[in-house]
Amino acid sequence: MSFKDSIHLNTKLGYFEGEIPVNYQYTLGVAGNIFFKTLMEKDEFIASECSECGTKTIYPLIYCEECFAPIEKYVPIGLVGELYSYTHCYYDYQGIRHEKPHVLGLVRFKGVQGGIVHRIEVKPEELKIGMKVGAKLKPKNERNGGIDDIIHFEKV
Amino acid sequence: MGYRKVAIVGAGITKFVRRAEETGPEMAYLASKMALDQAGLKLKDVEMITLGTAPDAFDGVHMKGEYLLSGAGGNGKQYIRNFVGGGTGVFAPIHGWMHVASGACDVCLVVCSEKMSSCHPHPQGAFLTIFDHTTEQPLKPTLIWIFALEMRRYMETYGLTKADIARVAVKNKNNALDHPSSQVADTVTLEDVLNSEVLAEPVHRLDISPASDGAAAMVLVSEHVAKRLTDKPVWIDGVGWNLDTAYWATKDLYYPRYVEKAARMAYEMAGITEPHKQIQVAEPYDPFDYKELHHLEGLLLCERGDAARLTAEGYTARTGNLPVCPSGGALGVGNPIAATGLMKVIEIFLQLREEAGKRQVPGKPRVGLAQAWGDLMQVGTVIVLRR
Ligand SMILES: [Zn+2]
Fold first, then answer.
1. Distance (Å, rounded) from C-alpha A144 to C-alpha B87?
2. Which of A32, A53, B176, B365 could cross-link with B182 by S-S, CB 3.0 to 4.6 Å?
3. A28: which chain B residues are within 8 Å (Cβ-Cβ)?
4. What contacts B37, CB < 8 A, 6 or more positions away?
Protein backbone atom coordinates (compact mmCIF):
# COMPACT_ATOMS: atom_id res chain seq x y z
CA MET A 1 0.00 0.00 0.00
CA SER A 2 1.44 3.40 -0.82
CA PHE A 3 0.56 6.98 -1.57
CA LYS A 4 -0.77 6.05 -4.99
CA ASP A 5 -3.59 4.01 -3.47
CA SER A 6 -6.46 5.91 -1.93
CA ILE A 7 -7.65 4.44 1.39
CA HIS A 8 -11.05 5.54 2.62
CA LEU A 9 -11.32 3.35 5.71
CA ASN A 10 -8.83 4.11 8.53
CA THR A 11 -8.89 0.54 9.83
CA LYS A 12 -8.13 -1.10 6.48
CA LEU A 13 -4.39 -0.74 7.19
CA GLY A 14 -2.59 -2.05 10.27
CA TYR A 15 -3.23 0.37 13.12
CA PHE A 16 -3.05 1.08 16.84
CA GLU A 17 -5.40 3.35 18.71
CA GLY A 18 -3.99 6.08 20.89
CA GLU A 19 -4.75 9.25 22.77
CA ILE A 20 -3.06 11.98 24.74
CA PRO A 21 -4.45 11.01 28.15
CA VAL A 22 -4.67 14.36 29.92
CA ASN A 23 -7.27 16.89 30.90
CA TYR A 24 -6.85 20.43 32.11
CA GLN A 25 -7.62 22.70 35.03
CA TYR A 26 -6.88 26.19 33.81
CA THR A 27 -6.38 29.05 36.25
CA LEU A 28 -8.53 32.14 35.75
CA GLY A 29 -5.40 34.21 36.22
CA VAL A 30 -4.93 37.33 38.31
CA ALA A 31 -7.04 39.62 36.10
CA GLY A 32 -9.54 36.84 35.35
CA ASN A 33 -10.15 36.29 39.04
CA ILE A 34 -10.91 39.97 39.53
CA PHE A 35 -13.27 40.01 36.54
CA PHE A 36 -15.32 36.95 37.48
CA LYS A 37 -15.41 37.73 41.20
CA THR A 38 -16.73 41.22 40.46
CA LEU A 39 -19.33 39.86 38.04
CA MET A 40 -20.44 37.25 40.55
CA GLU A 41 -20.71 39.60 43.52
CA LYS A 42 -21.48 43.02 42.05
CA ASP A 43 -23.31 42.35 38.77
CA GLU A 44 -20.89 44.34 36.66
CA PHE A 45 -18.17 43.96 34.10
CA ILE A 46 -14.81 45.49 34.84
CA ALA A 47 -12.09 46.63 32.45
CA SER A 48 -8.43 47.16 33.20
CA GLU A 49 -7.34 50.79 32.88
CA CYS A 50 -3.75 51.76 32.13
CA SER A 51 -2.45 54.56 34.32
CA GLU A 52 0.19 55.47 31.73
CA CYS A 53 -1.78 55.71 28.48
CA GLY A 54 -5.39 55.46 29.70
CA THR A 55 -6.33 52.47 27.52
CA LYS A 56 -9.19 50.41 28.95
CA THR A 57 -9.36 46.72 28.08
CA ILE A 58 -11.94 43.97 28.45
CA TYR A 59 -11.40 41.21 29.38
CA PRO A 60 -9.05 42.89 31.82
CA LEU A 61 -5.31 42.19 31.71
CA ILE A 62 -2.59 42.72 34.32
CA TYR A 63 -0.63 44.69 31.74
CA CYS A 64 -1.43 47.25 29.10
CA GLU A 65 -1.18 45.75 25.63
CA GLU A 66 -0.46 49.21 24.22
CA CYS A 67 2.40 50.40 26.41
CA PHE A 68 3.26 47.32 28.54
CA ALA A 69 2.79 49.18 31.82
CA PRO A 70 1.53 47.11 34.76
CA ILE A 71 -2.17 47.61 35.50
CA GLU A 72 -3.05 49.03 38.89
CA LYS A 73 -6.65 50.03 38.24
CA TYR A 74 -9.78 48.07 37.33
CA VAL A 75 -12.91 50.07 36.52
CA PRO A 76 -16.59 49.06 36.30
CA ILE A 77 -18.20 49.50 32.88
CA GLY A 78 -21.74 48.26 33.57
CA LEU A 79 -23.41 45.39 31.70
CA VAL A 80 -24.59 47.14 28.53
CA GLY A 81 -22.71 47.33 25.25
CA GLU A 82 -23.17 47.53 21.52
CA LEU A 83 -23.54 44.58 19.13
CA TYR A 84 -20.46 44.77 16.90
CA SER A 85 -21.16 41.66 14.79
CA TYR A 86 -23.23 38.45 14.92
CA THR A 87 -23.81 35.09 13.25
CA HIS A 88 -26.41 32.29 13.22
CA CYS A 89 -24.64 29.03 14.11
CA TYR A 90 -25.95 25.72 12.71
CA TYR A 91 -23.07 23.32 13.40
CA ASP A 92 -21.26 22.72 16.66
CA TYR A 93 -17.56 21.86 17.04
CA GLN A 94 -18.22 18.13 16.70
CA GLY A 95 -19.86 18.64 13.33
CA ILE A 96 -23.40 18.09 14.68
CA ARG A 97 -26.13 20.12 12.96
CA HIS A 98 -28.76 21.85 15.10
CA GLU A 99 -32.08 22.50 13.36
CA LYS A 100 -32.57 25.74 15.26
CA PRO A 101 -29.45 27.88 15.07
CA HIS A 102 -28.29 30.01 17.96
CA VAL A 103 -26.98 33.53 17.56
CA LEU A 104 -23.44 34.36 18.62
CA GLY A 105 -22.32 37.95 18.82
CA LEU A 106 -19.41 40.19 19.73
CA VAL A 107 -20.40 42.91 22.18
CA ARG A 108 -18.25 46.00 22.61
CA PHE A 109 -18.31 48.71 25.23
CA LYS A 110 -17.89 52.44 24.71
CA GLY A 111 -14.30 53.62 25.15
CA VAL A 112 -13.06 50.13 25.90
CA GLN A 113 -10.70 47.99 23.82
CA GLY A 114 -11.80 44.36 23.30
CA GLY A 115 -15.23 42.89 23.89
CA ILE A 116 -17.28 39.90 25.00
CA VAL A 117 -18.32 37.07 22.70
CA HIS A 118 -21.54 35.45 23.88
CA ARG A 119 -24.98 34.12 22.98
CA ILE A 120 -27.41 36.80 21.78
CA GLU A 121 -31.14 36.42 22.46
CA VAL A 122 -32.91 38.96 20.26
CA LYS A 123 -35.93 38.54 17.95
CA PRO A 124 -34.62 37.90 14.41
CA GLU A 125 -36.36 40.98 13.00
CA GLU A 126 -34.77 43.19 15.66
CA LEU A 127 -31.22 41.84 15.33
CA LYS A 128 -29.04 44.66 14.06
CA ILE A 129 -25.40 45.64 14.24
CA GLY A 130 -25.01 48.62 16.54
CA MET A 131 -28.03 47.80 18.72
CA LYS A 132 -27.73 48.15 22.50
CA VAL A 133 -27.57 44.81 24.28
CA GLY A 134 -27.17 43.99 27.96
CA ALA A 135 -25.98 40.90 29.80
CA LYS A 136 -28.61 38.77 31.51
CA LEU A 137 -26.96 37.11 34.49
CA LYS A 138 -27.88 33.96 36.35
CA PRO A 139 -29.43 34.43 39.80
CA LYS A 140 -26.65 35.15 42.33
CA ASN A 141 -26.96 31.80 44.10
CA GLU A 142 -26.42 29.89 40.83
CA ARG A 143 -23.23 31.66 39.76
CA ASN A 144 -19.90 29.89 39.93
CA GLY A 145 -17.45 32.54 38.74
CA GLY A 146 -17.26 31.56 35.06
CA ILE A 147 -18.42 32.83 31.69
CA ASP A 148 -21.70 30.90 32.04
CA ASP A 149 -22.70 33.26 34.84
CA ILE A 150 -23.83 35.28 31.81
CA ILE A 151 -26.90 33.54 30.32
CA HIS A 152 -26.89 35.68 27.18
CA PHE A 153 -27.08 39.27 25.96
CA GLU A 154 -30.50 40.70 25.15
CA LYS A 155 -32.04 43.92 23.84
CA VAL A 156 -32.19 46.81 26.30
CA MET B 1 32.80 34.80 11.11
CA GLY B 2 30.75 37.75 9.97
CA TYR B 3 28.41 37.75 12.95
CA ARG B 4 27.69 40.96 14.84
CA LYS B 5 28.47 40.96 18.55
CA VAL B 6 25.44 40.34 20.76
CA ALA B 7 25.15 41.40 24.41
CA ILE B 8 22.75 40.49 27.18
CA VAL B 9 21.70 43.67 29.01
CA GLY B 10 18.74 42.61 31.17
CA ALA B 11 16.99 39.58 32.59
CA GLY B 12 13.96 38.66 34.69
CA ILE B 13 12.62 35.51 36.32
CA THR B 14 9.33 34.88 38.14
CA LYS B 15 9.16 32.56 41.10
CA PHE B 16 8.99 28.91 40.09
CA VAL B 17 6.02 27.27 41.84
CA ARG B 18 3.92 24.13 41.67
CA ARG B 19 0.85 26.11 40.66
CA ALA B 20 0.75 29.80 39.92
CA GLU B 21 -2.45 31.84 39.97
CA GLU B 22 -1.13 33.68 36.92
CA THR B 23 -2.01 32.51 33.41
CA GLY B 24 0.77 31.78 30.92
CA PRO B 25 0.58 35.24 29.34
CA GLU B 26 0.55 36.85 32.80
CA MET B 27 3.71 34.96 33.79
CA ALA B 28 5.35 35.85 30.46
CA TYR B 29 4.51 39.51 31.12
CA LEU B 30 6.00 39.57 34.62
CA ALA B 31 9.32 38.12 33.41
CA SER B 32 9.41 40.29 30.26
CA LYS B 33 8.72 43.48 32.21
CA MET B 34 11.48 42.67 34.72
CA ALA B 35 13.97 42.08 31.91
CA LEU B 36 13.05 45.31 30.11
CA ASP B 37 13.21 47.31 33.35
CA GLN B 38 16.68 45.93 34.14
CA ALA B 39 17.82 46.82 30.64
CA GLY B 40 16.34 50.32 30.96
CA LEU B 41 14.18 49.80 27.88
CA LYS B 42 10.50 50.14 26.99
CA LEU B 43 8.58 47.69 24.87
CA LYS B 44 8.58 50.19 22.02
CA ASP B 45 12.39 49.86 21.90
CA VAL B 46 12.09 46.13 21.21
CA GLU B 47 12.12 45.20 17.54
CA MET B 48 11.88 41.42 17.57
CA ILE B 49 10.75 38.82 20.06
CA THR B 50 11.43 35.11 20.28
CA LEU B 51 9.35 32.95 22.57
CA GLY B 52 10.34 29.52 23.85
CA THR B 53 7.85 27.14 25.40
CA ALA B 54 7.44 23.36 25.71
CA PRO B 55 4.75 21.26 23.98
CA ASP B 56 1.25 22.73 23.70
CA ALA B 57 -0.15 19.73 25.57
CA PHE B 58 1.45 20.89 28.85
CA ASP B 59 -0.52 24.11 29.06
CA GLY B 60 -3.47 22.57 27.23
CA VAL B 61 -3.43 25.44 24.76
CA HIS B 62 -2.96 24.76 21.09
CA MET B 63 -0.81 27.38 19.33
CA LYS B 64 0.71 28.28 22.67
CA GLY B 65 3.20 30.63 21.03
CA GLU B 66 0.34 32.74 19.75
CA TYR B 67 -1.47 32.49 23.10
CA LEU B 68 1.58 33.81 24.99
CA LEU B 69 2.35 36.51 22.42
CA SER B 70 0.60 39.43 24.09
CA GLY B 71 2.21 38.80 27.50
CA ALA B 72 5.60 38.50 25.83
CA GLY B 73 5.09 41.93 24.26
CA GLY B 74 4.67 40.51 20.76
CA ASN B 75 1.61 42.46 19.57
CA GLY B 76 2.30 43.88 16.14
CA LYS B 77 5.98 42.95 16.22
CA GLN B 78 8.27 40.46 14.49
CA TYR B 79 7.49 37.62 16.87
CA ILE B 80 8.20 33.92 16.48
CA ARG B 81 8.12 30.81 18.65
CA ASN B 82 11.11 28.50 18.80
CA PHE B 83 10.99 24.92 19.99
CA VAL B 84 13.39 22.03 20.59
CA GLY B 85 11.68 20.25 23.49
CA GLY B 86 13.52 20.50 26.80
CA GLY B 87 16.42 22.14 24.97
CA THR B 88 14.20 25.14 24.20
CA GLY B 89 15.22 27.32 27.16
CA VAL B 90 18.80 27.58 25.95
CA PHE B 91 17.80 27.56 22.29
CA ALA B 92 15.59 30.62 22.86
CA PRO B 93 18.53 32.99 23.51
CA ILE B 94 20.39 31.28 20.65
CA HIS B 95 17.42 32.13 18.45
CA GLY B 96 17.47 35.68 19.77
CA TRP B 97 21.21 35.79 19.07
CA MET B 98 20.47 34.87 15.42
CA HIS B 99 18.11 37.84 15.17
CA VAL B 100 20.73 40.32 16.43
CA ALA B 101 23.96 38.69 15.15
CA SER B 102 22.54 38.59 11.63
CA GLY B 103 21.75 42.30 11.67
CA ALA B 104 18.00 41.69 11.40
CA CYS B 105 17.49 43.82 14.51
CA ASP B 106 19.32 45.64 17.30
CA VAL B 107 17.03 44.78 20.21
CA CYS B 108 15.47 41.35 20.73
CA LEU B 109 13.43 40.20 23.72
CA VAL B 110 13.73 36.50 24.58
CA VAL B 111 10.87 35.06 26.65
CA CYS B 112 10.23 31.55 28.01
CA SER B 113 7.04 30.63 29.86
CA GLU B 114 5.62 27.35 31.06
CA LYS B 115 2.47 26.43 32.93
CA MET B 116 2.61 22.72 33.63
CA SER B 117 0.13 22.73 36.50
CA SER B 118 -2.93 22.83 34.22
CA CYS B 119 -2.17 19.33 32.98
CA HIS B 120 -3.93 16.47 34.82
CA PRO B 121 -3.57 13.89 36.17
CA HIS B 122 0.12 14.47 35.33
CA PRO B 123 2.19 16.04 32.53
CA GLN B 124 3.61 12.53 31.92
CA GLY B 125 0.35 11.88 30.07
CA ALA B 126 1.27 14.58 27.59
CA PHE B 127 4.67 12.95 27.10
CA LEU B 128 3.11 9.64 26.06
CA THR B 129 2.79 10.54 22.40
CA ILE B 130 6.43 11.54 22.02
CA PHE B 131 7.12 7.79 22.01
CA ASP B 132 6.68 5.79 18.82
CA HIS B 133 2.95 5.24 18.43
CA THR B 134 3.10 1.62 17.34
CA THR B 135 6.15 0.12 19.07
CA GLU B 136 6.34 2.02 22.37
CA GLN B 137 3.09 3.78 23.24
CA PRO B 138 1.15 0.54 23.76
CA LEU B 139 3.59 -0.19 26.66
CA LYS B 140 2.34 3.04 28.30
CA PRO B 141 5.89 4.27 28.98
CA THR B 142 6.79 7.31 31.05
CA LEU B 143 9.91 9.37 30.58
CA ILE B 144 11.11 8.17 33.97
CA TRP B 145 11.24 4.60 32.66
CA ILE B 146 13.59 5.42 29.83
CA PHE B 147 15.69 7.69 32.00
CA ALA B 148 16.02 4.79 34.42
CA LEU B 149 17.38 2.73 31.50
CA GLU B 150 19.78 5.54 30.63
CA MET B 151 20.89 6.08 34.25
CA ARG B 152 21.49 2.37 34.84
CA ARG B 153 23.53 2.04 31.64
CA TYR B 154 25.58 5.09 32.66
CA MET B 155 26.20 3.63 36.14
CA GLU B 156 27.12 0.26 34.66
CA THR B 157 29.49 1.70 32.06
CA TYR B 158 31.55 3.61 34.63
CA GLY B 159 30.99 1.49 37.74
CA LEU B 160 29.08 4.21 39.59
CA THR B 161 26.89 3.78 42.67
CA LYS B 162 23.58 5.47 43.46
CA ALA B 163 25.38 7.63 46.02
CA ASP B 164 27.83 8.85 43.36
CA ILE B 165 24.87 10.27 41.51
CA ALA B 166 22.70 11.40 44.41
CA ARG B 167 25.40 13.88 45.48
CA VAL B 168 24.31 16.07 42.57
CA ALA B 169 20.77 16.32 43.97
CA VAL B 170 22.16 17.19 47.42
CA LYS B 171 24.42 19.92 45.98
CA ASN B 172 21.78 21.49 43.74
CA LYS B 173 18.88 21.45 46.20
CA ASN B 174 21.12 23.09 48.80
CA ASN B 175 22.43 25.65 46.29
CA ALA B 176 18.83 26.59 45.50
CA LEU B 177 18.26 27.77 49.07
CA ASP B 178 19.87 31.04 47.91
CA HIS B 179 17.76 31.45 44.77
CA PRO B 180 14.76 33.78 45.15
CA SER B 181 12.75 31.87 42.51
CA SER B 182 13.25 28.49 44.12
CA GLN B 183 10.43 25.94 44.41
CA VAL B 184 12.12 22.85 45.90
CA ALA B 185 15.28 24.08 47.61
CA ASP B 186 16.00 21.92 50.61
CA THR B 187 18.74 20.98 53.03
CA VAL B 188 18.55 17.35 51.92
CA THR B 189 21.26 14.86 52.78
CA LEU B 190 22.64 12.00 50.77
CA GLU B 191 20.59 9.60 52.90
CA ASP B 192 17.41 11.57 52.15
CA VAL B 193 17.96 11.13 48.43
CA LEU B 194 18.90 7.47 48.67
CA ASN B 195 15.95 6.72 50.95
CA SER B 196 13.35 8.63 48.95
CA GLU B 197 10.62 6.69 47.18
CA VAL B 198 11.67 4.53 44.22
CA LEU B 199 9.95 5.59 41.01
CA ALA B 200 11.72 3.30 38.54
CA GLU B 201 14.90 1.84 39.95
CA PRO B 202 17.51 3.36 40.01
CA VAL B 203 15.52 6.60 39.83
CA HIS B 204 14.15 7.82 43.19
CA ARG B 205 11.87 10.76 43.82
CA LEU B 206 14.63 13.13 44.97
CA ASP B 207 16.71 12.30 41.88
CA ILE B 208 14.14 14.24 39.85
CA SER B 209 13.14 17.85 39.32
CA PRO B 210 9.46 18.77 39.83
CA ALA B 211 6.82 19.97 37.37
CA SER B 212 6.57 23.76 37.72
CA ASP B 213 4.95 26.98 36.58
CA GLY B 214 7.30 29.85 35.81
CA ALA B 215 8.70 32.28 33.27
CA ALA B 216 12.00 33.95 32.43
CA ALA B 217 13.09 36.61 29.95
CA MET B 218 16.20 38.41 28.75
CA VAL B 219 17.07 41.32 26.48
CA LEU B 220 19.67 40.91 23.72
CA VAL B 221 21.13 43.90 21.91
CA SER B 222 23.76 44.74 19.32
CA GLU B 223 27.14 46.20 20.32
CA HIS B 224 26.38 49.89 19.75
CA VAL B 225 23.12 49.64 21.72
CA ALA B 226 24.85 47.75 24.53
CA LYS B 227 27.42 50.52 24.90
CA ARG B 228 24.62 53.07 25.34
CA LEU B 229 22.78 50.98 27.93
CA THR B 230 25.31 49.48 30.29
CA ASP B 231 28.89 49.33 31.56
CA LYS B 232 28.44 45.64 32.23
CA PRO B 233 27.37 43.91 29.02
CA VAL B 234 27.72 40.15 28.94
CA TRP B 235 28.52 38.89 25.45
CA ILE B 236 27.20 35.79 23.75
CA ASP B 237 30.47 34.35 22.51
CA GLY B 238 29.37 31.01 21.13
CA VAL B 239 26.20 29.11 20.40
CA GLY B 240 25.64 25.51 19.42
CA TRP B 241 22.78 23.10 18.94
CA ASN B 242 22.43 19.58 17.69
CA LEU B 243 19.65 17.04 17.28
CA ASP B 244 19.90 13.27 16.99
CA THR B 245 17.39 10.62 16.00
CA ALA B 246 14.07 10.05 17.79
CA TYR B 247 14.87 6.33 17.59
CA TRP B 248 16.50 6.69 20.97
CA ALA B 249 17.16 2.97 21.34
CA THR B 250 19.86 3.23 18.67
CA LYS B 251 22.02 5.53 20.82
CA ASP B 252 24.73 4.97 23.44
CA LEU B 253 22.72 5.66 26.55
CA TYR B 254 25.84 6.41 28.60
CA TYR B 255 27.04 9.34 26.50
CA PRO B 256 25.18 12.28 24.90
CA ARG B 257 26.97 12.71 21.57
CA TYR B 258 24.48 15.36 20.47
CA VAL B 259 25.49 17.49 23.49
CA GLU B 260 29.17 17.12 22.54
CA LYS B 261 28.42 18.21 18.98
CA ALA B 262 26.48 21.23 20.20
CA ALA B 263 29.30 22.10 22.62
CA ARG B 264 31.98 21.79 19.94
CA MET B 265 30.01 24.18 17.72
CA ALA B 266 29.74 26.73 20.54
CA TYR B 267 33.40 26.34 21.59
CA GLU B 268 34.66 26.82 18.07
CA MET B 269 32.68 30.02 17.72
CA ALA B 270 33.91 31.25 21.12
CA GLY B 271 37.54 30.29 20.42
CA ILE B 272 37.55 27.83 23.30
CA THR B 273 40.10 25.09 22.78
CA GLU B 274 40.38 23.66 26.32
CA PRO B 275 36.88 23.89 27.80
CA HIS B 276 37.81 22.23 31.09
CA LYS B 277 40.31 25.05 31.69
CA GLN B 278 38.51 27.97 30.04
CA ILE B 279 34.93 27.54 31.26
CA GLN B 280 34.81 28.96 34.79
CA VAL B 281 31.18 28.42 35.76
CA ALA B 282 28.61 26.08 34.20
CA GLU B 283 24.87 25.48 34.26
CA PRO B 284 24.27 22.14 32.52
CA TYR B 285 20.69 20.88 32.41
CA ASP B 286 19.87 18.78 35.47
CA PRO B 287 16.26 17.56 35.33
CA PHE B 288 17.65 14.33 36.83
CA ASP B 289 20.79 14.24 38.98
CA TYR B 290 22.67 11.83 36.69
CA LYS B 291 21.98 14.21 33.81
CA GLU B 292 24.30 16.84 35.27
CA LEU B 293 27.13 14.29 35.24
CA HIS B 294 26.19 13.06 31.76
CA HIS B 295 26.19 16.60 30.47
CA LEU B 296 29.46 17.66 32.12
CA GLU B 297 31.07 14.81 30.18
CA GLY B 298 29.26 15.63 26.93
CA LEU B 299 30.29 19.27 27.33
CA LEU B 300 33.95 18.09 27.52
CA LEU B 301 34.30 19.73 30.93
CA CYS B 302 35.75 16.50 32.30
CA GLU B 303 36.81 13.03 31.17
CA ARG B 304 34.09 10.53 30.42
CA GLY B 305 32.99 8.76 33.57
CA ASP B 306 34.83 11.20 35.81
CA ALA B 307 32.07 13.70 36.65
CA ALA B 308 30.87 11.73 39.70
CA ARG B 309 34.35 11.68 41.25
CA LEU B 310 34.73 15.44 40.70
CA THR B 311 31.34 16.01 42.34
CA ALA B 312 32.28 13.89 45.36
CA GLU B 313 35.52 15.87 45.73
CA GLY B 314 33.68 19.20 45.73
CA TYR B 315 35.15 20.29 42.39
CA THR B 316 31.64 21.27 41.17
CA ALA B 317 30.51 22.94 44.42
CA ARG B 318 29.85 26.67 44.37
CA THR B 319 33.32 27.21 45.84
CA GLY B 320 34.98 24.48 43.75
CA ASN B 321 37.29 24.79 40.75
CA LEU B 322 34.34 24.57 38.38
CA PRO B 323 31.10 25.63 40.06
CA VAL B 324 28.25 23.68 38.43
CA CYS B 325 24.61 24.74 38.80
CA PRO B 326 25.32 27.42 41.41
CA SER B 327 21.69 28.50 40.83
CA GLY B 328 20.39 25.25 42.26
CA GLY B 329 19.41 24.04 38.81
CA ALA B 330 16.22 22.29 37.81
CA LEU B 331 16.63 19.99 40.80
CA GLY B 332 16.51 22.86 43.26
CA VAL B 333 14.96 25.94 41.64
CA GLY B 334 12.30 23.94 39.77
CA ASN B 335 11.65 22.84 36.23
CA PRO B 336 9.20 24.87 34.16
CA ILE B 337 10.90 23.36 31.08
CA ALA B 338 11.75 26.26 28.75
CA ALA B 339 11.92 28.78 31.61
CA THR B 340 14.44 26.52 33.37
CA GLY B 341 16.88 26.63 30.47
CA LEU B 342 16.62 30.41 30.31
CA MET B 343 16.98 30.62 34.11
CA LYS B 344 20.33 28.85 33.64
CA VAL B 345 21.51 31.33 31.02
CA ILE B 346 20.40 34.14 33.33
CA GLU B 347 22.40 32.58 36.18
CA ILE B 348 25.58 32.70 34.08
CA PHE B 349 24.73 36.29 33.07
CA LEU B 350 24.41 37.25 36.77
CA GLN B 351 27.54 35.31 37.78
CA LEU B 352 29.64 37.06 35.13
CA ARG B 353 28.28 40.44 36.25
CA GLU B 354 28.99 39.48 39.86
CA GLU B 355 25.34 40.12 40.69
CA ALA B 356 24.41 36.64 41.87
CA GLY B 357 24.23 37.70 45.53
CA LYS B 358 24.60 34.81 47.95
CA ARG B 359 25.00 32.47 44.98
CA GLN B 360 28.02 34.34 43.65
CA VAL B 361 30.90 32.02 42.86
CA PRO B 362 34.38 33.21 43.87
CA GLY B 363 37.17 34.21 41.50
CA LYS B 364 35.37 36.81 39.32
CA PRO B 365 34.60 34.42 36.46
CA ARG B 366 34.84 35.80 32.93
CA VAL B 367 33.56 32.86 30.89
CA GLY B 368 30.58 30.62 31.59
CA LEU B 369 28.29 28.20 29.87
CA ALA B 370 24.67 27.07 30.02
CA GLN B 371 23.24 23.98 28.37
CA ALA B 372 19.85 22.39 27.97
CA TRP B 373 18.75 19.04 26.70
CA GLY B 374 15.51 17.45 25.71
CA ASP B 375 13.14 15.98 23.17
CA LEU B 376 13.38 12.18 23.21
CA MET B 377 16.95 12.20 24.59
CA GLN B 378 18.00 13.82 21.34
CA VAL B 379 18.82 17.52 21.56
CA GLY B 380 21.66 19.53 23.04
CA THR B 381 21.70 23.34 23.14
CA VAL B 382 24.75 25.24 24.40
CA ILE B 383 25.56 28.91 24.92
CA VAL B 384 28.90 30.39 26.00
CA LEU B 385 28.89 33.81 27.67
CA ARG B 386 31.81 36.14 28.37
CA ARG B 387 32.12 39.45 30.17
ZN1 LIG C 1 -0.93 51.74 28.47
1. 40
2. B176
3. 23
4. B10, B12
The reply to whether A33 touches chain B by the CB within 8 Å rule is yes
Residue of B21, B2, B361 lying closest to B175 (CA atoms): B361
Question: According to the model, what pLDDT value does residue B272 have?
Answer: 98
Contact between B171 and B333 under an 8 Å Cβ cutoff? The reply is no
pTM: 0.96
Long-range contacts of A132-141, Cβ-Cβ distance < 8 Å, separation of 24 or more: A132/A80, A132/A81, A132/A82, A132/A83, A132/A156, A133/A80, A133/A81, A133/A82, A133/A83, A133/A105, A133/A107, A134/A79, A134/A80, A134/A81, A135/A45, A135/A79, A135/A80, A137/A39, A137/A43, A137/A79, A140/A40
What single DSSP character describes residue B357? G
Centroid of ligand 1 to alpha carbon of A72 (angstroms): 11
Residue A7's pLDDT band (cuts 50, 70, 90): confident
CA A27 to chain centre: 16
Using 50, 70 and 90 to split pLDDT, how confident is the model at A1?
A: low
In chain B, the domains with their CATH numbers are 6-119+210-386 (3.40.47.10)
**Contact across the interface for A29 and B26, Cβ inside 8 Å:** yes
Tens of pLDDT along B204-250? 999 999 999 999 999 999 999 999 999 999 999 999 999 999 998 89
Instruction: Let me know: does B313 contact B171? Beta carbons within 8 Å.
Output: no
Tell me the three state secondary structure of residue B44: helix
* B130 vs B41: which has the higher pLDDT: B41
- Structural domain spans, chain A: 3-155
pLDDT digits (tens, 9 = 90+) for B336-385: 999 999 999 999 999 999 999 999 999 999 999 999 999 888 999 999 99
One DSSP character per residue, B285-345 reads --SBHHHHHHHHHHTTSS-TT-HHHHHHTTTTSTTSSS-B-TT-HHHHT---HHHHHHHHH
Residue B131's contacts (CB-CB under 8 Å, 6 or more residues apart) are: B137, B141, B376
The reported pLDDT for the residue numbered A6 is: 73
